[in-house]
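Methods: example folding runs. The two proteins below were folded one after another, and each record is reproduced exactly as written to the output file, sequence line first and structure-token line second.
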Amino acid sequence: MRKMIKQEKKTTQNGDLGIRINGFPGGSIGFELVVRFCYSNGKIALSPANVSLLHCVAAFLEMTEEMSSCNLLHQTETFLEGLFYWTWNEILMAIKACEPFLVHAESSDLLQKLIFALLDKIRANSDVPLTPSLSSSSSSPETNSTFRFSSSTKTPDSAKSSPIKAWWFEDLTLFPPKIIERVLKTMGAYGTQNNRLDVTRFLLLYLKTTGQKQITAIPRDEYGSLADTAVHGVISIGEAAFTCRALFQVLMVVSGFGLSKDCRAQLERLIGVMLDQATLDDLLVSGHDGSVFDVNLVLRLLRVFVNELVSMSSQRLKKVGRLIDKYMGEISPDPSLKVSKFLAVAECLPDSARDCCDGIYRAIDIYLESHPRLSFDERSRLCRCLNYEKLTLESCKDLAKNPRIPPRIAIQALASQRSKVQPAMPMPHHATDEREMPQLNEKEEMRKNLERMQSRVMELEKMCRQMKGQMSKMIKNNVISSPDNHKPLPRLC
């Protein structure tokens, strides 16, 4: 520094002397500490709270024994030799202190030493060691009385019965993502190497805790590698530790942290093959770009599920069919939901997934009521996902009277029901059970009602054709364009 000052004096003509040191560890705080050391004849009280900064400052300024005996770098190195005798909180404090000058802490190997001490504490107080090998000198003789033994690294066969949290999870959520990355790399559980349940659960808690913070100074894309690491762990363990609902929750947690497309696709595939275990609440994921629900996600999951049909029982398929019918009823009121997207969901499953199409009809009715400006062609196209033969008689009767359903669709639906309602047979003379008479009368009445409704629909269609013919004549004779004829035209079906 004396050399720097002399050089500055030579180049400065106006007498304003100033020195700028770029990249100084800890900034002004670190500089003040080292000045106090120099003006105290090389004496300073070292502690886990300040040793990280002082060590990096000493390395940055090359305060070695060559310059002065018992210099600052030697003192910090001597203090760090007792690192593995520190308490858990002291180690956490020293690692957290490295955050503002992380580059210097890494280049001086200080961060690696602290992480080894951290993992050694966890290893000494857990059932299974977290890292294959640590330094032989890293054995801690102390066991803090507040430590609890954890079994969070069990094999997948018993993973579902293991604790959700280990004792060290909450404390490590205070670290920034860069430090967590270094911890995972030291453990050999970073990226595609992660196949540990405890690490995966910690990362999900870490990301969830970060997501709940309203204000964070760290950009969310810096968490992307941690989100990928968590997903790799989930995929490697799979159904052994995660239910379908848990997988949906995992997807919601990692989606906001720059998850890679490949990891997202793998996670969605794992959810898709378990879709028959999902509930309606699981599927109602908030949408993006103005949409109320994320329908595209459900479509991707359905396509994965359908691709597994070869090895799937009909019960699983029909269970998903009932689930999707309920889902369609929930998303139908969304004003941003297009007809094409509605049909994509309805038609994604094969016809064998539904024994009854009443659920689809109810969803269509809700959609038509919520989208009153649909054209005649759009309303007709919307009904193409209906299998009229799978409608119950009550739903078919409601459809025929529904003013939002095009008349031709109503006729087709009624025609499909004709085979279900045969003419009532004459009652045999030997039928003495009075309970049979109401059933026969009810069936005959239903048949007559169907015939009346079909006749009425045909009359309505005939009236529509006549009105269209009249409109054509009026247009041909230029009646509409005449200034004396501004009467409102009749509304077509």
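Second run, written to the same file directly after the first:
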Amino acid sequence: MLEWAGVPPDESPRRGGSLGPYLQSQRLHLYSQTAQQLVESGHAYYCFCSSQRLDLLKKEALRTGQTPRYDNRCRHLRAEQVQEKLDQGVPHVIRFRLEAGVEPFQDLIFGRYHHDVAQVEGDPVVMKADGFPTYHLANIVDDHYMRISHVLRGSEWLISTPKHLLMYDALGWQPPTFGHLPLLMNKDGSKLSKRQGDIFIQSFQRDGVLPEALLDITTNCGSGFNTNRIGRRIDELISEFNPSKITTHSALLDLEKLPEFNRIHLQRRVEDVDQCNLLIRDLQGQIQQAEIQDKEVLHEDYIRRVLHHRKGHITFLKEILSPAYSYLWVRPSFSSQQVAALTTEAQHIASSVLKLIAEQDEELTVERLSKDLKTLAKQSKATKYREVMKLLRLALSGLQQGPSVAEMMVCLGRAEISHRFQKLLLLSETD
């Protein structure tokens, strides 16, 4: 999904890199080795408490209105007691020994921050009974061995950072610089949750949201920029980003505005030659799966013309394949009754349009056609301008509304206009 979004990681399981492996399941030896180092130096210890005992502790704390915390019972076991339990194969975890008097640290966003974690929490588990690390151990081991200089993460981890700094100190490692970013929230201030199925990136991708639109709306609702404006692409976001402008306020994500962001970025794609070619190829694949009038509609020039005339009007690419635009890919059907309800001059009007198209030797343009169609409509003796336009729209699309008649004609092209008005001519001749 990061690759799709245009923000690929420099190193990853997919791309490789010099500081791998990049899957935690392939780094278990590093976590185990570090946990043992902490035990041997007296900064961590084996804990043999059962899940039942921990549950009872939690229930008792809640009953008395206290915050649940581990009571550090196993911290006080004698060496021979520990060895005896290990020899007996008693299941255990490894806990880090929290010490009082943690130093404040300077956060990039929240500034000077102090939280004496040992006063409010029990000793945290760093290695689980299954041999996998908790986040507390994994993040410092990974960041140390991958030579991470700066850690930018959500502000919910701010309260845990003093704990991590104690662990860096216990191992004699230099900690990275930390910056805790404000969270992305729903428009009403509630937390974005994985339980909202539609908040997964894949859902947006499947719905036809462009990655640059998603990046744009996400950065637009937050901070970190001197000014906020709609329509920024990744290169502009990079050049305009100013870390000193990040605030501690949560960013409210208004997804109702996403279609507007998508419309703007879709328009920018259409205007970029290379990006437009990719859109054309995408549409060609989708059109081939539909019942189409003939292979002409698969031509690059035809699809490009359609996209350039509809840019700014469509929000998602898939709209071009909706029933409202079916006339672009499938010849419409209409009845002689529908024609008769509009005019008795259908034959004359169809002939006039065919003559108009035949006489136009230059490229069709919306401006020129609009003018010529007005002139043509005035030549109809018994049919008002509105009815003439309704007839032309019916012959071109089989619909009662849509883009202007002139735009429809420019998109369809001379050959297709002639084909559709020949059909109108034949239909009105048989009546």
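Comment on the second run: Strands lie at 44-47, 93-96, 105-107, 111-113, 125-127, 150-154, 177-181, 184-186, 251-253.
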